[in-house]
Amino acid sequence: MDKCHFRGGILKSPVLKNILAAVLGYVVMFAVSFPLFGLLWSVLGADGASAAGSWNVSCEWIIGSIVLGGLVSIAGGFSCSWAAVSRGGVAILVGLVLAFGILALVPDAGVAPGLRPDQVSMFDAMTSAQQPLGMLWLNPVLGVIGVLFGAMLQGGKPPLRQIAD
Q1: Number of domains in the chain
Q2: Which residues contact 157 (CB under 8 A, 6 or more apart)?
Q3: How far apart are CA 135 and CA 54, in angstroms?
Q4: Is 86 a member of any domain?
Q5: Cα gap 159→89, rounded to integer Å
Q6: Which DSSP letter does residue 119 get?
Q7: CA distances from 79 to 22, 24, 57, 121, 123 (A)
Q8: Which residues contact residue 51 at a Cβ distance below 8 angstroms, ignoring those fewer than 6 apart?
Q9: Is 107 helix (H, G, I), strand (E, B) or coil?
Q10: How confident is the model over 110-119, as a mean pLDDT?
């Protein structure tokens, strides 16, 4: 192939760099969430994370997940803003957070979990937990706020100011 087609390399594209920065931000969110929520599970245990004999999450779990979810989204926004060429990278990450948050609203077609046994693994609890509908709507909103705050902490302008500039 002719080398002139690759002059400058594929990573010279600012759009591709922003997409990769958004993917990095989401990977950071994923990587940070597992140890933090694992720690929350270790602290609360099955009985503290959900109501007795039920898969409905407890108030303690909801409060903890709001705090930890905020930290997770701040870390994602910070890392995305750090790696992005422009504010577009953070905007892409915001879109990912909203898209996956909306997907979480789609009802699970699986069998209702029934009563929760006394001993349950963290994986079983994660896959069977029943969040209040309000939390399912609130999570993507808080995620977007955290991503934007993390991007501001990184030192760049908030992505939403790009429109006013």
Answers
A1: 1
A2: 87, 165
A3: 17
A4: yes
A5: 9
A6: S
A7: 9, 7, 30, 31, 27
A8: 57, 58
A9: coil
A10: 66
Pair 32, 75: CB distance under 8 Å = yes
At residue 123, the 3 state secondary structure works out as helix
Would you say residue 162 lies in a domain? no
Helix (H, G, I), strand (E, B) or coil at 135: helix
pTM: 0.81
Q: What is the pLDDT of residue 90?
A: 95
Contacts for 103-108: CB closer than 8 Å, 24+ residues apart: 104/136, 104/139, 104/140, 105/136, 105/137
- What's the domain range around 132? 15-104+119-157
Asked whether residue 125 is domain-assigned, the answer is: yes
Give the H/E segment covering residue 45. Answer: helix 14-49
Answer whether residue 7 shows pLDDT above 70: no
Rounded Cα distance between 18 and 124, Å, is 36
Mean pLDDT of 47-52: 82
Please write the tens of the pLDDT for every residue from 27-48. 999 999 999 999 998 899 878 8
Residues 143 and 126: their CA atoms lie apart, in Å, by: 19
Residue 112 lies in a domain: no
